Please model this.
Amino acid sequence: MKLNPDFFRHTMDGATLIVPTADAAFRGLVQGNKTVGVIVECLEKETTEEAIVDCLCERFEGDRADMEADVADVISRLREIGAIDD
Model:
């Protein structure tokens, strides 16, 4: 899976924005925290949920099961707006 090229990540003051281009069907902005930023950063190249969780575990302290749930939730929401290509 990978971030759809009709979307890009912008980071500002610790917040991550996922911004659609004019070619995207979704209209609006998605705002997230640093964790969402890392997830989207990983999605900028072909990856898997497991690889994203591994990246989060390297960067942040916390329970792996919680990170797995967070990754699954973010990916699900990004799929809903068409921001992920499988």
User: Anything to note?
Assistant: The chain is about 45% helix and 20% strand. The chain has one domain: 2-85. The chain has a mean pLDDT of 96.
